[in-house]
Amino acid sequence: MSGNGDDATAGGLCAVHLPRAARGPVARGREVPAEPAESELPRVGRFPAVQAGQPEIERIPPTSALVGYRGPTACAAAGITYRQLDYWARTGLLEPSVRTAYPAGAQRLYSFRDILLLKIVKRLLDAGVSLQNIRVAVAHLQAAEPADLTGLTLMCDGATVYECTSPQQVVDLIGGGQGMFGIAVGAVWQELETALGRLHAERTDTGETLVGHNPADELAQRRNRAV
């Protein structure tokens, strides 16, 4: 019998053989099956993704303060190695704001904003910006309001990082004739939000594991709801 219920018609029952003990008396040389009780009737059908009475799964956005990410997840989302992550945390370049590695043995827990900065640091390093200037840029971004971050564009010439809050400022820098490299923080934000939505996370208040959600994987969706 198929486990997914495709062999049963809608609202109907599949054909099964009743055990001999459940059959009725013999009449005129033929066995007349007794009507089984309703509770004994076999029922076949598709299991619902969410059972009756089960609450809907709460979907918490990756940017929420209730969500934290462990080191390996932060590395995967930011495109860095765990060695880089550990070194930057130990040297104070970028420590996790949710939970540090102290007391000894504790798992570091990073916020969405932490990982956003990790991703930006990686891009600045790839552009040849010195760690000294990166530290200044990180400190400035950490002090900015979250709502202001998405409207920022960071421009750098390999030595200095400039913060632009309008397209005109970007044009003015490029118009100087010097080679510039730009990072649109809003675009990085959207890219990271999509990536983290598919990765496992942890609730900062309860420690509960939050399973990543991949819209393309129907089977994963059903398993998530059944947990």
Q: If you had to describe this structure to a student in words, what would you say it looks like?
A:
With 227 residues, the protein is an alpha+beta fold. The chain is built from eight helices and nine strands. A four-stranded antiparallel beta sheet has the order 4-3-8-9. It has a three-stranded antiparallel beta sheet with strand order 6-5-7, sandwiched between helices. Strands 1-2 form a two-stranded antiparallel sheet. It is globular, with a radius of gyration of 29 Å. Mean pLDDT is 77; it is low at 1-28 and 38-57.
Keywords:
single chain; 227 residues; alpha+beta; 3-stranded antiparallel β-sheet; 8 helices; 9 strands; globular; disordered N terminus
Cα-atom radius of gyration: 29 Å
Number of strands: 9
In whole angstroms, the N-to-C terminal distance is 25 Å
Residue fraction in strands:
5-15%
Q: What letter string, H or E per element, gives the SSE order?
A: EEEHHEHHHEEHEHEEH
Main β sheet profile: 4 strands, antiparallel
Q: What is the average per-residue confidence, as pLDDT, rounded to a whole number?
A: 77
Structural class: alpha+beta
Shape: globular
Unreliable parts: 1-28, 38-57
Brief characterization of the structure:
The chain has helices at residues 71-78, 82-90, 112-126, 131-143, 146-149, 167-174, 185-196, 218-226, and strands at residues 26-27, 30-31, 67-70, 109-110, 153-156, 161-164, 181-184, 201-203, 209-210.
